[in-house]
């Protein structure tokens, strides 16, 4: 049986194609175009950090499976994400078949760098097609590539592709259709790659370029001219700071109108439901439990989308690696690698992709430090918490001659506090680990381009979907659970407090208040902290439910900010803000840290140090605020 199986497989198996190439050459864009998938595409190296599989059918009706892989400059991997690519191509991954053919994707405007990998992969002896991607840009820049000659020199089919244009993949599909239905070829071992010295490979690249590429009236690269300003030692950092500042201003000022619309709609629904039903358990569950909880999280959708709008634009236009360069010196000062910039920036969305993106960091210590501080970056789940408290306590007015919105300014300060403490913690960890010398940052600067509107729209839609699904599932379920725990058992005879005070949640909250009292958190806040462990924004929903149920009298409460501004003192509010800068709230992050570091130890260390920092920071904030008479 063992002898028959491989032959049968060779005839019936769907061929597996691997997309290989340098970082940022358009592999994922091509993968998305071939398969209709929506994997993340962005204009910097190291976007894809995992292997992703998809399938498609060619115009001639042949089925293919296709792999999108992290970009690599060479198959002699130096970073964990490159190792994934090497292992997949070399068939070294347990339980996984090696690819039957390779589509080598290259950036047509940068063949000098890209061809080295092509020559390396060729030594594996697998069937290959070369996709000259970004030929649109090459044409514009007057770079002429003789593909017939190139095909001859390389001994493989060469096709032009434009991965970001509809139909830009057709030539590749045609080439794949023409590939013979051969039985699986066994690749040469990976060691074949290193059989030829690098210098010799470089010489070969130069020879091929001389033979196949000409640069007609090259007008000079526009990106370089832009970089004269963007990377300028004085203007560069000013521009970066101005950009960041603009983002936080926009988060507040642009969001005001849509937020009012959402909260108006939630209130209207609450009033409608409340009017339809007589007071009772079901009405309380619907109005206070669900609308009060879910509604108070939902209003933050516009702010989250505005934040992501900026992140997506910056990612797509090519600015991020420049920012990494500008900050390399600062980051080096605390012992971080400049490469940590992109993982840390991703953590503004959520610490989980941030922790995973640390795979692009070569040095294991640098990688560990980056992982350990990633959750200090303000993730988007904290935004609702910050925004709620700011809206309740910070007046919405302009300062500095009408230029700066005070609420936006406070938000900016909170984000900044996260960054500064991350730097501080990195410095301390590096001290413990023993410093290694700072390695210079080697990062490819991509060409600038305008953000693709479709990409942007899809990215925002994905974000909205993630948020709404969370609101509709985790948050909704927790709100219902919390409502039960907060409603039973009811108040005893002659109760002086609202019923929630005597409920199970109320008892838990009062017990926790013993620990958190010294930092200003009353029992109601303590109730909200517990479900906030699942996801930070749940804390806002929980506050919504808790305070809706704490209302005495008959009025229905679905708008949280005015209630908390009455119930909390300013020191309490500031203390809670300080808590959320540091608190290790989210269990999902801790479990990813365990997976990525391969040890539960670091997850515990992270939770421990963040908890200690949170408590200390809140304590100091609370006491100082009281002492100052706030
Ligand atoms: N003009 C133009 N832009 C392209 C083309 N293909 C990709 N891009 C852009 O190039 C950038 C990189 O594309 P990705 O698909 O993320 O590149 P990748 O090779 O998957 O990158 P890594 O995952 O980091 O290795 C994105 O900004 C794309 O929009 C193309 O054919 N023409
Ligand atoms: Mg990719």
UniProtKB/TrEMBL annotation:
<dbReference type="InterPro" id="IPR030389">
    <property type="entry name" value="G_FEOB_dom"/>
</dbReference>
<dbReference type="Pfam" id="PF07670">
    <property type="entry name" value="Gate"/>
</dbReference>
<feature type="transmembrane region" description="Helical">
    <location>
        <begin position="368"/>
        <end position="394"/>
    </location>
</feature>
<feature type="transmembrane region" description="Helical">
    <location>
        <begin position="500"/>
        <end position="521"/>
    </location>
</feature>
<feature type="transmembrane region" description="Helical">
    <location>
        <begin position="334"/>
        <end position="356"/>
    </location>
</feature>
<protein>
    <recommendedName>
        <fullName>Ferrous iron transport protein B</fullName>
    </recommendedName>
</protein>
<keyword id="KW-1133">Transmembrane helix</keyword>
<feature type="transmembrane region" description="Helical">
    <location>
        <begin position="234"/>
        <end position="255"/>
    </location>
</feature>
<dbReference type="InterPro" id="IPR011640">
    <property type="entry name" value="Fe2_transport_prot_B_C"/>
</dbReference>
<feature type="transmembrane region" description="Helical">
    <location>
        <begin position="467"/>
        <end position="488"/>
    </location>
</feature>
<feature type="transmembrane region" description="Helical">
    <location>
        <begin position="533"/>
        <end position="550"/>
    </location>
</feature>
<feature type="transmembrane region" description="Helical">
    <location>
        <begin position="406"/>
        <end position="429"/>
    </location>
</feature>
<keyword id="KW-0812">Transmembrane</keyword>
<feature type="transmembrane region" description="Helical">
    <location>
        <begin position="261"/>
        <end position="282"/>
    </location>
</feature>
<keyword id="KW-0472">Membrane</keyword>
<dbReference type="InterPro" id="IPR027417">
    <property type="entry name" value="P-loop_NTPase"/>
</dbReference>
<feature type="domain" description="FeoB-type G">
    <location>
        <begin position="14"/>
        <end position="182"/>
    </location>
</feature>
<dbReference type="Pfam" id="PF02421">
    <property type="entry name" value="FeoB_N"/>
</dbReference>
<feature type="transmembrane region" description="Helical">
    <location>
        <begin position="570"/>
        <end position="590"/>
    </location>
</feature>
<dbReference type="InterPro" id="IPR050860">
    <property type="entry name" value="FeoB_GTPase"/>
</dbReference>
<feature type="transmembrane region" description="Helical">
    <location>
        <begin position="602"/>
        <end position="625"/>
    </location>
</feature>
<dbReference type="InterPro" id="IPR006073">
    <property type="entry name" value="GTP-bd"/>
</dbReference>
<dbReference type="Pfam" id="PF07664">
    <property type="entry name" value="FeoB_C"/>
</dbReference>
<feature type="transmembrane region" description="Helical">
    <location>
        <begin position="289"/>
        <end position="314"/>
    </location>
</feature>
<dbReference type="InterPro" id="IPR011642">
    <property type="entry name" value="Gate_dom"/>
</dbReference>
